[in-house]
Design a protein that fits this description.
- The protein has helices spanning about 10-30, 45-60, 75-85, 105-110, 125-130, 140-155, 170-180, 195-200, 255-260, 270-290; strands spanning about 5, 35-40, 65-70, 95, 160-165, 185-190, 205-210, 225-230, 235, 245-250, 260-265.
- The mean pLDDT is about 95.
- The protein has 10 helices and 11 strands.
- It is about 40% helix and about 15% strand.
- It has about 300 residues and is α/β, with parallel strands linked by helices.
Length: about 300
Amino acid sequence: MPATVIDGKAFAAKVRGQVAEHVTKLKEDHGLTPGLAVVLVGEDPASQVYVRSKGKMTVEVGMNSVEHKLDADTSEVDLLDLIDRLNTDPTIHGILVQLPLPEHLNEDLVINSIDPAKDVDGFHISNVGLLGTGQKSMVPCTPLGCLMMLRDHHGSLSGLNAVVVGRSNIVGKPMAQLLLGDSCTVTIAHSRTKDIQAITQAADIVVAAVGRPQMVTGAWIKPGATVIDVGINRIDAPEKGEGKTRLVGDCDYASCADVAGAITPVPGGVGPMTIACLLANTVTACCRANGLAEPKGLTA
């Protein structure tokens, strides 16, 4: 039997619909409109596209979208001053500083200057610590999206063996914490892991977030396992013509799909969930800031 394809694009549309419903309710019942501020420093083309997409989707679900576009040579003092103003602005519930930043800016300093309650990326050291100790936090968007899809596919994750391939602060580590929170038995594998294939072959869930194109093959996967491919890699595609490229994940999709019970494609899997979860986090932050019940199904 071929693997079930977990359609991240469709699932993300469903999440955005839930967000829109919560936003409508906040407006009607409490006179509140969640606000998301995105700060872009410089003119990185990929970042510009991503910020435009975030702004469009924020407005589509009924929230306020505020964009601050700063020159590439903006000083650290001026950037921190802007973040301080956003921290104290009651109409802004979520703040996101688009990464990467120009080299002269200290990313850790900038991220940790954001009010943790408004840190909808979930990167602030306070949120990292809260997540790691099982307390209420803002959760990084990509791992949150993965968790939502896993819960939807499996129902309960309790007792399942999960392997996270990759130990980044943005995906690998928080993903492991979220899976632990849902009572999985979790292993983090990485570039120094010995006999990594034997480890993934024992897993009910494999989350590939290592940043190496098509590294995980079907030989690594236990029959019937669920494969979540976080990777987005651009490789040469000579079959499309000279100089052409295509997107692939960290998994070799064809061979993994032959063995797995379920798998996310690339593109169209985890990627669309990241922005959907950013919107969900903004609604959650708005509710918490105003002492209201958090939206069900949109948090960890």
